Amino acid sequence: MGIDLRSVVEAVRNLTTSDHASVVSITLCVTLLCASIVIGHLLEESPWINESITALLIGVGTGVMILLLSGGKSSHLFMFSEDLFFIYLLPPIIFNAGFQVKKKHFFRNFATIMMFGAIGTLVSFTIISLGAIAIFGKMDLGLVVGDYLAIGAIFAATDSVCTLQVLSQDETPLLYSLVFGEGVVNDATAVVLFNAIQDFDLSRINSAIALQLIGDFIYLFISSTALGVFLGLLSAYVIKKLYFGRHSTDREVAIMMLMAYLSYMSAELFYLSGILTVFFCGIVMSHYTWHNVTQNSRVTTKHTFATMSFVAETFIFLYVGMDALDIEKWRVVSDSPKTSIKVSAILLGLVLVGRAAFVFPLSILSNFNKSPHEKIGFKQQITIWWSGLMRGAVSMALAYNQFTKAGHTQVRGNAIMITSTITVVLFSTVVCGLITKPLVRFLMPSSKELSRSMSSEPGTPKSFAVPLLDSHCELFNGQASGAHGDQQPVVHPSSLRMLLTNPSRTIHYYWRKFDDAYMRPAFGGRGFVPYVPGSPTEPSVHEWPAEEAKD
Amino acid sequence: MGIDLRSVVEAVRNLTTSDHASVVSITLCVTLLCASIVIGHLLEESPWINESITALLIGVGTGVMILLLSGGKSSHLFMFSEDLFFIYLLPPIIFNAGFQVKKKHFFRNFATIMMFGAIGTLVSFTIISLGAIAIFGKMDLGLVVGDYLAIGAIFAATDSVCTLQVLSQDETPLLYSLVFGEGVVNDATAVVLFNAIQDFDLSRINSAIALQLIGDFIYLFISSTALGVFLGLLSAYVIKKLYFGRHSTDREVAIMMLMAYLSYMSAELFYLSGILTVFFCGIVMSHYTWHNVTQNSRVTTKHTFATMSFVAETFIFLYVGMDALDIEKWRVVSDSPKTSIKVSAILLGLVLVGRAAFVFPLSILSNFNKSPHEKIGFKQQITIWWSGLMRGAVSMALAYNQFTKAGHTQVRGNAIMITSTITVVLFSTVVCGLITKPLVRFLMPSSKELSRSMSSEPGTPKSFAVPLLDSHCELFNGQASGAHGDQQPVVHPSSLRMLLTNPSRTIHYYWRKFDDAYMRPAFGGRGFVPYVPGSPTEPSVHEWPAEEAKD
After folding, report:
1. Phi then psi dihedrals of residue A405, to 5 deg
2. Helix residue spans in B89-144 (DSSP H)
3. How many helices (H) and strands (E) does chain A have?
4. Burial (CB count within 10 angstroms: exposed 0-12, middle 13-18, buried 19+), residue B21
5. CB burial class (10 A; 0-12, 13-18, 19+) of residue A338?
6. Is the pLDDT of residue A17 over 60?
7. Per-residue pLDDT tens for B343-367?
8. Which of B23, B265, B310 is the closest to A269 by Cβ?
9. Opening angle at CA A420, ends A188 and A331, nearest 5
10. CB within 8 Å: B311 and A257
11. Which residue from A349, B252, B295, B422 puts its CA 20 to 30 A from B69's CA?
């Protein structure tokens, strides 16, 4: 009876106090998150340090403390978990990016972004893989061809999270949309690449298979985007139809958060790119759904999504920092420090070359047939090259998956690859993170004017806010620079001529027409005013989430 | 090489698409959550159905579908997880309850709440345990004394989540604070009870040990509360000191959310009652921290906490519903359906008796030495008795922990206890859930007037908003009912006489004085206006989160 009683009690105690080890980890993590936020805030005035680097350094410091406290046995609170990263931390970051992105800039540079994300990633992957085969093949690390291809994938994965932290959407909107958009497309490329390699033998590669790869990519891109757009529109429709007249902020916010997460998970369910889907779902939600809810819900969703993204980002950097002192692998590597340093340096070099190999040629290609003020200048090309060099949690997750079994390895070659990945991630994040801000300021002191001159509506950064006619007139008046004397309104411009002169603006014009005629009446959006009776298509005073002033 | 390549690809594919089974579960869960919210909204007008019951029924429906689709093999998406419940779902619900609770009502009824929560739970536990020994002992279920005590604990645990859904804070504030407050204290009692039983042998129980149990409970209650208050004040202090002059909504919201969660986890870390801690942290945060942040942060935190709590509640009901068709246990039980029904009925009876055994005597005790309009009437006693009958996820978690090993059992007695617990939970939630709303309306048609007459500030429900002097005068004018002709302001009332006449009001008066003189200057709170220069102690127009009108 004594034993029975004890086991009851033990069981209930375990229940109410839960597994104590996980309680300790969670408590420490939350404490460190708070510390990172507070210290990051205190260091905000510094021109060098940003919040990512603060979190990374606090993570490394905690790792050292744990290492000392445990007598050199362990530096881990927990192993790096891919599930945690891909299922819980990445979706809010990418969704928020879509929700707050300046849609105009993103869509105007759509072709360039696609080129950078798809072709650029392939170029980078190829160069890093070939470089690894050529250099590491001679170093007797015990790696096989599969490992070299994995290295290519690991270091071709641009870290969108770092990019978001270092580049400012307001100061350098063109660079932001190019580098970040590239990061989003990058994921889709990687999925197609690896799904394709799985199905085909490398020795059988030919032009038919290459074509099929391209077809697969296009299918994946279109279906992922369509799913995101569909779920975004569904959320807008549901909220518009169901909640009209009797809004509940809690329900609206819950539906928006759940639908956003659902878009990511359902894309993963259908083996699509969750990152692409959740990104486009965010764009659609900010264009339609956000305008269908109450003012309180707008404030709440805007700040909640931003906060969740902010916390997830901080957590990732903390986590990578804590995992950097993975003593088990460093110990395996410790008898050959020169090899380890050499490998890290070579990898960094390959990353630099791999990125340069597509940024400069593709920029020149993209400048072809563009007006001078829309071209990507050489200084901007350097910034794009530099600010996309950072490797982060995606690289770590891929490296752990490839070179360890459930986080552990004793094989020397694999341990070297893990420690080198950690070195590259820490080095690129800290060094690129420290240098990018000053570099952007140095290369583009007039970045604000420059970005404004690249926008087609110079005087109206909030161009979506103006009614259709204004925007329409301005759009074509600004373009017809020689016809300023002609005061006649351009009512029916020749669509073919327009399409040839400036395709993206023409598409934008027809999209606006279609949006106003069919989409907004069905799905709400700007001008949809809940509660207030009256003309539902009249422009309201509410702003885009991305263009509202931050408090 | 072929194999290596395939394993790379497989690994990367696993990574980007994650474990597909968990993706399926999460997608289905999020979809069901959305469905529950939308259907719950559509059924809102119904006087019977509420959102909990909708979610529960959707959960049961999904369980049936999974059962049919899997050919009778399984009804589970995943096993009921205590960690998920206690670490992730319960904290937001209890924190939000503290954050939105009407503090005045809670503290005015503090003594009664403590009596109900501590002594009441013990009475209920004793009666259910003794009843189980007396009745089930004769039924040859193969249970031992430890199991009977566990049954007492399982069915003495009032489900605060159900209570929050069924009772309305605005309509029946007294009942809400009594029943909900009891639920919060209930947890602390259970922890002490089981920690104590673990350390002592039941055969050696005597008055010294009983005293020590009481001492343990008082220690646990005070330390848990103190920790919650400390962390709440810390958050207020940090935000007031650090963010003054340069607020960032995202950071403020992040700090508030993280500190709230930290309070729960750190209580669990020190083996205290996380529920008590996070509840008091919520109260302190709504009293101080919430007033130190920007208007946008106020709107965001208020709605975010409410939304998180709402989603967690809906999820729990969905989860319990899905788990109800635990086919493995029902199959074990299926050869003795009579026994199973009998056990469920006996348990329901014991729950009814166990609760009646403390609600009515303790209410009479609490009415002693109170003015007539402050007494708990017989109709109210019935409502308190009835609305605390619901058993929910806490009972399920305890039952799974006691009667299964990692969710599985083949022992007949254990399977019967699991299925009976499920029956009691479903029956009590659905039946009590359906009947409580009409019952409250039937027993207390004038509940609004009644609750108002019990409040000391009849005309000013937002009494905290009025400056000190007004509230002070009103407080004592309302009390001195015979001295209405005397127009002299009561400047220095005899504190001893006041304490004897009405202790809670006196404590309230001195607390207000202390709060204004020492606490608010240090920790902010109502009247602290960020950004706006000027007198920081002047009352602002901002309302309490709990007393703001819902949109």
Report:
1. -110, 115
2. 90-100, 103-108, 110-114, 121-136
3. 26, 0
4. exposed
5. exposed
6. no
7. 899 999 999 999 999 999 988 888 8
8. B23
9. 135
10. yes
11. B422
